[in-house]
Amino acid sequence: MLDIFQNLLMGFQVALTPEMLFWVTLGGVLGTIVGMLPGLGPATGVAVLLPMTFTMGPTAALITMCGIYYGAMFGGSRSSILINTPGDGAALAATFDGYPMARTGRAEAALAMSGIASLIGGLIAAVMMVFIAAPVSRFAIKFGPAEYFLLMIAALSMTASMSKKNVVRGFISMFIGLMIATVGLDAQTGTNRFTFGIMELQGGIDFLIVIIAIYALGEVFKSYKSIQEGKVKMQTKFGKIWITKEDWKKCWRPILRSTPLGFIIGALPGAGGTMASLMAYNNEKQLSKNPDDFGKGEIVGLAAPEAANNASSVGALIPMLTLGIPGSGTTAVMMGALLMLGLQPGPLLFTNNPDVAWGLVASMFVGNLILGIVNIPLAGVLVRVLSVPPRILYPIVLGLAFIGVYAIGNSTLDFYLMILFGMLGLGMEKVKIPTAPMILGVIVGGTMEVAFRQALSISNGSYSIFVKSPISVSLILIIAVSILFPVVKEWIASKRKPLVASFMDGEDGGV
Amino acid sequence: MNKHLKAGIGTSVFGLTYTLGAWGLPRSTVGNPMGPVIYPLFLGGILTILGLLSIIMGIREQKEKGVEKQEGFKVTQTGKLIFISCAAAVLYALTFQGLGYVLATSLFMMIVMFALNGRKHWRSNITVSVAFSIGVYLLFSNLLSIPLPTMPFLDI
Known about the structure:
The complex is a heterodimer.
Chain A: H1 2-15, H2 18-36, H3 42-49, H4 58-83, H5 93-103, H6 107-140, H7 145-163, H8 167-180, E1 184-185, E2 192-193, H9 207-228, H10 245-267, H11 272-287, H12 300-315, H13 317-323, H14 329-340, H15 349-352, H16 354-375, H17 379-382, H18 390-409, H19 413-430, H20 436-458, H21 470-495, H22 497-504
Antiparallel strand pairs in A: 1-2
Chain B: H1 3-23, H2 35-65, H3 77-99, H4 101-117, H5 122-143
Helix pairs in contact in B: 1-2, 3-4, 4-5
C-alpha cells in the first residue's frame, strides 16, 4: 500500500513539472479541437497528432498523448451538445439530452455539466486505476509465453465478438490485422515473408501507417458525407458557463453511480466508451422518477453518460498498460505510440520504467483537472472551432496524416500503403466489417507470433503446452465464452428485442 | 448479393491466396524449417474458414429474405470526393520528392480543398493550403528537426 503512494508521489513529481504541464495542456487543447470535428474521435486525434511527439522524450510524449486522448473525449461531447453531431461513438449519448438542452436555451448548463461530470468521472477512475494497475501487472508477470499467447487471443476475441453484432465479421477483421503483421523479415529466422521483393517491406508494415490510414484517412473520407448534409445552426454567444445548485443536487448521485460502471466496462477489452455511456444512460433512465423527461433535455441524462465515458477511457488503459493488450481502437493507437517510443507496455512496464508508468497515472489526475479548467470556463472560446466549416478542417487533417506517415519512415512508399489501407478500411465498412479488431491484430500480431513460437519451442513442438496450466485452461474458457456469447446474445435478443437491441446496436468498435 | 456474401467471397479469396502464399514461403535454414510458416498457415486457414462461414450465412440470408435487388453502380457525390482525394494523394506521393514538401503539399491540399470547399472560396482554399504547407515545413525542419524534401533549386 505504502509503495503505491510512494510511486504515485514520484509520478506527480514527473507530471507536475512545468514542461509536462505545458505538454498536457497543449495536447488537451489540440485533442479537444480534433475531437470536436464531426466523426473524428480520440483515435483520430492521437493518430494525427502523433508526429508532434516524435522528438520528445518518452514520458513527455506519453503525457502529451494522454492529453490528446482526454481532450478528444471532452471535445466529442461539445459537438454533441451544440450541433447534435457526436465527435465519436462514445459521445453519442451526449446528444440525447445535451442537444435538447442547448435548444431550450440551456447550452451553458449543458456544457458545464458535461465538463464537470467528465472531470469527476475521470478523477475517480484515476484513483481506481492507481489501486488496480500494479496488482494486475504483478499477476501477469507470472505468465509464460503459452499463457501470454492465449491471453492475447482472449482479448482479441472479446474485442472481435463485442465490436459489432456479427461475430464472424469481427474475427475476419482480427485475422486480416494479424496477417498484416506477418509481412516483413521474420525476426527469428531471417526469412522474408510476403515482401514481394520490395526492400522497404522487409522491415514490415508499420502499424502506425495502418492506424493513421484507418483513423485519419478512412474516417475523414467517411465524414465527407456530412459536408453535403446541411449544417445545423450553432449557438455562438454564451452566458456564464456554469450549473445551478438544483442541477448539481440532481446529478451528483448519477455521476457517482455511473463512474464505476464506466470504469469496469472500459477495462473489459472490446466494450469501450460507447457501450459504457449508453449503459449509464439507460441505467439512470430506469432509476429516474420521471423517465419521460429523458431525451427532452434532462440534465441527468447528460451527466451520467459523460461521467461513464471518461471513466471508461481511464479503465481502458488498464489492459493496455498492465498486460500490453489494447482493448479498443483508441488504446491500440496509444499502444502503437508507446511501442514507437521503444517502450513495451505490459507487466514489465511498471517495474522497468516506473517513472513512465506512474508519471502517466499521475498525469491522468493532472490532465483531467487541466481539461476541466480549459473546457469549462473556456468552452465558449473553444467551440468557435465548430463554426469553422469542416470542409476546411478535413483537408488539414489529411495533410497532417500524410506528414505523420512521412515522419515515421521517411519514405513515400508509405503514402501508397496508407492510401491502400485507407481504401481497405472504407471497403470493410461498406460490407459491415468493423475495423477496430484489425487495428488490434496489427499491433499485437508480432508479439503474439513470438509468444506462440516461444511456447512451441519450449514444448518441443507439442501443442499440449497451451492446455497445461490452470491459467491457460481458464483463458481457453474465456475465449470459448467470448465466441459463444454473441450467439447467445442474439438468441436472447430475438426473444426480447426492444430492450436489448436498443443499446447493443449502438456500440461501434469501441472507438 | 448481400453484405455477408460480398464480405465472404472477398475474405475467402484473400484467405486462400494468403494460405497458398504462406505455403510457398521459403523454409527456414535454421531451427525448425517450418518455423516461420506454421503461424501464417494457421492464420490463412482460419480466415478462409471464416470467409466460407460468411458465404454460408449470406446464402441462408438470401433464402430467407430473397435476393437483394442489385443496385446499379452509382457514383455518389461522396464517392467522387473520395476518388479525387485518393488521386490527389497518389499525385502527392509522386511529386513529394521532386517538388519538395511545400510545393507538393500546397498542390495536394489545393486539389482537395477545391473539391470539398468549392471554387467559390478559392481565396481561402489557396491561403489555407499554402499557409499549412509552410507552417508544417517550418515546424518540422526547425522545431522538430525532421528534414523534409526541399524545393528544386531553392534550399527551402
